[in-house]
């Protein structure tokens, strides 16, 4: 006995299949193939350390404040990449941050890239993991001649700032030559 589908049933199957393939095709380029990628063209990221202090996460700042991100030493004009896929929340200029890009990633994660020279994305734009979103600059507080060029990177999980090393980025603290990663220590 052969199974016969009505024209209406075949049409519905085709529409549903098309919708599913459309959704998969739309999301596929924006999947995160790795937990995170480097925001700079370096596998080993070095924290800024200069005459104005250091760029470590939670490093002390004037007025009893703490550094809200991490400053990664980089050459002016070097590319800045999205650490994960997401949507551009905001592109703008701030007195302290200078030119910046804020991204909202899937789930509860977001990231901010500051002191940029050029901005290559717009508000609301979708970005892929590893996509170039700007170039390193010396804008905002980084304009001071003693401060080395760097990328200021902030990562937020559930609106709480976290150390970017927790995402698996390998970061070297130039002031102490210590490496920060999310991997557990193997020493006794």
Explain the overall architecture.
It is a single chain. This protein is mainly β and 188 residues long. The chain has a single domain, classed as Distorted Sandwich (Glucose Permease (Domain IIA)). It is 11% helix and 35% strand. The protein is built from one helix and 14 strands. It has one helix at residues 7-27; strands at 45-47, 49-50, 53-54, 70-73, 79-81, 86-94, 98-105, 109-119, 126-127, 132-136, 150-157, 160-162, 171-173, 178-180. The strands form three sheets. Strands 4, 5, 6, 7, 8, 9, 10, 11 and 12 form a nine-stranded antiparallel sheet that branches. Strands 1-13-14 form a three-stranded mixed sheet, with no helix packed on it. A two-stranded antiparallel ribbon has the order 2-3. Strand 7 and strand 8 form a beta hairpin. The longest helix is centred in the N-terminal third of the chain and has 21 residues, at 7-27. Mean pLDDT is 82; it is low at 182-188.
Main attributes of the structure:
Glucose Permease (Domain IIA), mainly beta, 14 strands, three-stranded mixed sheet, disordered C terminus, single chain, 188 residues, 1 helix
């Amino acid at each position: 006995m052969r199974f016969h589908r009505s024209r209406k049933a075949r049409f519905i199957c085709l529409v549903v299949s098309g919708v599913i393939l459309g959704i998969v095709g739309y999301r596929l380029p924006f999947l995160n193939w790795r937990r995170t990628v480097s925001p700079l063209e370096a596998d080993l990221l070095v924290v800024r350390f200069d005459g104005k202090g250091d760029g470590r996460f939670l490093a002390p700042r004037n007025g009893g404040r703490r550094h809200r991100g991490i400053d990664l030493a980089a050459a002016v004009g070097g590319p800045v990449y999205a650490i994960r896929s997401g949507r551009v929340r905001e592109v703008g200029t701030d007195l302290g941050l200078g030119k910046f890009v804020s991204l909202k990633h899937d789930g509860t994660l977001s990231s901010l890239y500051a002191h940029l020279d050029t901005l290559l994305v717009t508000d609301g734009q979708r970005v892929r993991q590893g996509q170039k979103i700007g170039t390193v600059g010396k804008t905002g507080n980084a304009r001071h001649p003693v401060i080395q060029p760097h990328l200021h990177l902030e990562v937020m999980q559930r609106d709480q700032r976290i150390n970017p090393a927790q995402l698996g980025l390998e970061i070297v603290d130039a002031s102490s030559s210590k490496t920060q990663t999310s991997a557990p220590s193997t020493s006794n």
